[in-house]
Amino acid sequence: MKKNKTTHFMSWVLILCFVGIFLLVAGRFLYIQATGEIDNVSLDKWAEEMRTASYTLEAERGKIYDTNGMTLAYNRPTYRVQAIVDESYTQNPEEPMHVKNPEKTAEVLAPLLDAEKRFLLERIKKGIEKDLFQVEFGKVGRELSQQTKKEIESLDLPGITFTEEAIRYYPNGMFASHILGFARKQEGQIVGQTGIEKEMNKLLGGEDGHISYERDNYNTELLNPNEVIKKPEDGEDVYLTIDQKIQTLLEDTMTEMFKKYNPERMTAIVMDPKTGEVVAMSNRPSYNPNVLDNVENWYNDAISTPFEPGSTMKMFTWAAAMEEGVYKGDEWFKSGKYRISEKMRPIHDWDGDWGSITYDEGFARSSNVAAAKLVWEKIGPEKFLDYLNAFDFDEKTGIDLPGEVVGEILYNWPIEKLTTSYGQGTTTTPIQLMKAATAIANDGKMMKPYVISKIVDSSTGDVIKKKSPEVVDTPISEETSKQMMDLLGSAVSAEYGTGDDYALEDYSVAGKTGTAQIPDPDNPGYMTGHENYIFSFLGMAPKDDPELMMYVSVKQPELEGYTPGSKPISFVFRNVMSKSLHYLSIDPDKESSKPVDSVTVPELLGQDVNAVKGSLTEKGINVTVIGNGTTVQKASVEKGEKLLPTDRVMLVTEKPVMPDITGWSMREVLELASLLDLKVETLGNGYAFSQSIKEGSPVKKNDYLGVEFTPPGVTPEQEPPPEEGQEQDPVSDDNTTEEDTETSEDSGSGSDTEEQT
């Protein structure tokens, strides 16, 4: 009896416990059903979020154009390949939608992706083992061309899908690369890293949109998907002051000299001194922003690398003396050596001693003694410092490019005040020199340099913002400007002038040479030797009404024998300045000149190809006909463009065939590939000597063209191997795979020695 009572009691306890638990659970269900919430989380909203797929709608990044509307940078579509490895994605076994045979898939994809079969197979198997929905293949599976995508699709491989994604593309390759900079994917967006791409990143990038909708487990949109769409706002277009024709002239000429003389650095700027517009700017070494491997120089030296300018600084010393009213050009002084006290080492002229000469002749001969005497005895060191500040040598130019660095006025001790007068000790950048020189070339008005012309709405074509020339100061008067231009003209035209190697056949030139010493990194003082200088020239033309101003410098060129350091820079200056002035239809101002007119492109499309070729050839244009048809379907130039004699024009007919491109520059090859929509791969530098598509072979869109290049004058077997230890791309890749010394002041007849302190 006692045992039964205990059993009954425990049974009731258990019954009560179960009833309590049941009531608790039932109550919880009733509460959830009534409120639709768990822990203050709405189940309706949670379910909606789980069913909702959301995707970013990328904004189209704005284009970058030159001043004439030539496209310099744009987004190009590429493709990313994925392999779906989740078996549940396949609904019909007869039509598999996942990777059914990993071994075969990896084997077939490997050659098309230029990857190892083992690597692809490991990726697929790892995805299967980890129950992933899909896998990707890192760098080898990204940025695929339309042609590669079509080849893979033709194999009909189960589970292989593609996602379209844009990359930033620069159709002219190594063209104004330090100005344009480059942009690349960063956290799913194309972001500017350097140059204009970085400076204008926010405007170019626009604002992404998004789309969201409800879908089932198989990502299929529901009948009532509650779709929400926010359209992207595309980026704005940026137009530069750069002129594609003049920039191309500069690029090609600098490349030729860089190959011939192998200097450590080269820099050149072409500017309109009346407005401050930069029409061309280039540095060597340079790089192709489409291929960021083994880049030797990321810096835009024209704005980012201060150096001791040498004798180009003398134009500002003489201008200061004129403006102060203390300059008498016909006053005589004793050249050769100058010392302000017995305790200080003397200043020497570069060619020893010319005896007694005038200050005008001293400028043409580039006399250090004359510069030092003007500062110490005529202007006064403190007043000269005021002029250096007035020419803005103590601050940035404010050019609309990132990374500008300001030089330093070294002006503490008497010897530094003397050496600054002829460009030693004090440092400046090429763009600072150019800005200051606009005052001399532009009636005393100093202009702010700029490279962005206007911002345009990419969808409507409306101009959002347009830049105008800006006068930042007037450090000298118009009278001083004209007097200084005459003196600069004598430095080029006078028999004893140091700049006679820069004279043009058909235009008068005003300019000043410079030969700057280079500090020795291993010892106190400066480097010695015939080649260890920065040779430079700053010139304007035509002299009486300058339309263009140009600066060229070359650091440590390899010079054979007694070759003067002026040779590479004078070649660049003469070729670019003369052809650019003709291209701009500037009338020559020399009576003995032979006018070379630019050619305005007529209507080409739809015209008879033989008639067009004959007309252009008569005017000196190099015409290449691509195809066997009778009418012009495409052309490398547009109606209204101006061409220089010897420019190449490509005419595509209705039956295009591959031309012989031997001897073509890389720019011309890239232009051809763009015109014919070819997938091009280049190897080497210089000029084309071999092509993968034979001459006369029919070509069609997305055909592959491989071209090998060799430097001018070098046969392929003589071409040196690539240098080791080159600087690597500093931007991480997010792929999932791996005492007194001497310097020279060049003249046209040879290289002399200018001793600077």
Automatic annotation (TrEMBL):
Residues 703-757 are annotated as: Disordered. The chain crosses the membrane at residues 12-31. Its main location: membrane. Pfam families: PASTA, PBP_dimer, Transpeptidase. Pathway: Cell wall biogenesis; peptidoglycan biosynthesis. Its EC number is 3.4.16.4. SUPFAM superfamilies: beta-lactamase/transpeptidase-like (SSF56601), Penicillin binding protein dimerisation domain (SSF56519), Penicillin-binding protein 2x (pbp-2x), c-terminal domain (SSF54184). The keyword Transmembrane applies. Keywords: Membrane, Transmembrane, Transmembrane helix. It comes from the Bacteria. Residues 720-745 have a biased composition (Acidic residues). It catalyses: Preferential cleavage: (Ac)2-L-Lys-D-Ala-|-D-Ala. Also transpeptidation of peptidyl-alanyl moieties that are N-acyl substituents of D-alanine. SMART domains: PASTA. PROSITE patterns: PASTA. It is found in: Membrane. Residues 652-711 form the PASTA domain. The keyword Membrane applies. Belongs to the transpeptidase family. This is serine-type D-Ala-D-Ala carboxypeptidase. It comes from Virgibacillus kekensis.
